[in-house]
């Protein structure tokens, strides 16, 4: 979460409140749930047209896809990109985010769209590598 917090300082106070409300000292953090709260913040910023932090946020998502281990890569795809997509209501909203996606993230973004549209069930397409 440190990289995401660095990229999106506007999330810091919400993150601190989230930690206080959801964890006690010594609790193991549930990263998928933590990332879901971060994604909700990103969607709120989008709805408020406060997108100044999107460039660094999506640079971090790209970094997670490139340099992360398998768990981190999956978290970046399923925890971040898919949560963003599922929060959007139409193609226009999906298309808005394209300009922020870097090459690997864009590849996974499109893979998720194909997966949820059923396209991958009709083809013998493997996940992007």
UniProtKB/TrEMBL annotation:
Protein source organism: Pseudobacillus wudalianchiensis
Domain of life: Bacteria
Name of the protein this chain belongs to: DUF7674 domain-containing protein
DUF7674 domain boundaries: 3-116
One Pfam family per UniProt: DUF7674
């Amino acid at each position: 979460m440190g990289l995401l917090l660095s990229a999106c300082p506007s999330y810091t106070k919400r993150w601190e409140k989230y930690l206080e409300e959801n964890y006690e000292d010594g609790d193991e953090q549930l990263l998928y749930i933590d990332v879901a709260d971060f994604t909700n913040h990103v969607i709120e910023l989008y709805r408020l047209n406060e997108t100044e932090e999107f460039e660094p946020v999506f640079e971090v998502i790209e970094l997670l896809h490139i340099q992360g281990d398998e768990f981190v890569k999956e978290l970046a795809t399923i925890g971040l990109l898919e949560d963003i997509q599922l929060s959007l209501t139409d193609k226009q909203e999906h298309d808005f985010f394209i300009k922020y996606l870097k090459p690997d993230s864009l590849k996974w973004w499109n893979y998720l769209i194909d997966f949820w549209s059923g396209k991958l069930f009709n083809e013998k397409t493997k996940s992007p590598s």
